[in-house]
UniProtKB/TrEMBL annotation:
This is DNA recombination protein RmuC. The keyword Coiled coil applies. Residues 404-413 have a biased composition (Basic and acidic residues). Belongs to the RmuC family. The chain crosses the membrane at residues 26-44. Involved in DNA recombination.
Amino acid sequence: MKCAHSSVEETVSGSWQSVPMTTSHFVVLFIGLAIGLVIGWLLAELRGRSGLAAAISRADVAEAQRQAAEERAELTAGDRDGLADRFRALSAEALNTQQLRADRAAERTVTDAQRLLAPVSQALEKLEHRLGEVERERTTMTARLGQQVEMVNAAGEGLRRETASLVTALRKPQVRGAWGEVQLRRVVELAGMVEHCDFEVQSTTTATGQALRPDMTVRMAGGRCVHVDAKTPLAAFLDAAATEDPDQRAAHMAHFARNVRGHVDDLSSKGYWRTEVDSPEFVVLFLPSDAFLQAALEQMPDLHDYASRHDIVLADPSILIPMLRVIALAWRQEDVARSAAEVAALGRDLHERLGTLSTHLDRLGRSLTGAVKSYNSAVGSLETRVLVSARRFKETGVTTADLDSPRPVDDATRPLTAPELTSSDEIAAEGEGRTTATPR
């Protein structure tokens, strides 16, 4: 309506501006305004009626929905009790079903647990059985251990008594000397120097008119020898081991070292190397234990130098064994050299015998060659002179048998061609004399 009215106004205003205003113009303008008002009112009325119809329609729909809701509410109120009973029945059924499922699951769980725990139960039973056995074994071993402890205690007591007896015995010079010689013999055996082969024990020699008896004389390759004397100054060493006072022990060990040095002086004065036996200018002073030499060196660190200046070599088992093994190696090398000389002599003898054998073989070959020549000559004579006449017997009917001719020997003996067996002149002579004879 407003749009139409504004469009009329715009039209009138344009017309008013375009032409001069007259009475007819006012009439037309008035009529146009009236028509515009009427049209606007009609449009507004139509729009109001359309909204009323829509409102009426919505009211009808709402009423229908209210009635449907009331019907549903009535239906719901009517089925409420039935639904409650049905719900209770379904709940009870579901509860029973769930209880059955839970019971079955529990049974399966128990069964699975029993199946899984069965090996564990068996293992526990075995473990319990084994623990019982171990306990019984422990009881038995405890009893045996007690017996063994008693035996060890008894053995220790016996060892203590034996040690005391040994210490008492070793305080005697004769016993100490015999023990030293036994240790010396063991060392020699360990080194591979067999008695009465590479060494001599307690051999008597003479030097400057005195009779000397070294404990051992080791024979070396080449006719030389080394003298060894065993010394066991154990009195002071045993006193040091028996005391618990450090000062007394030090005094006894110093006394022991002085005793070793005294043996060095005594052995140096004997001068075994000046004997008639070819010997190096030193003598070996053997101490039967490594501990003895170590203890002496702790008290006198220059004891080796002191002994060397007096032509004495201090040796314990760890020193003497390598020395003897070196001497044994020299003996083996001399045996190898002697064996090589024997092999060389045998080789020369074999070479001479091979020459003699080759001479005999050459003569035998010449004889065989002459025999082949004689045989072939006889075969030729038999075929050309004898068999020709003998075959005439068959022609005259005296016999029907054929006579076989012997075959000549074409092989000749093989000549000796090796230069070790014959000379070139002999080979040439053999070549001329061994020409194979041809049958005549």
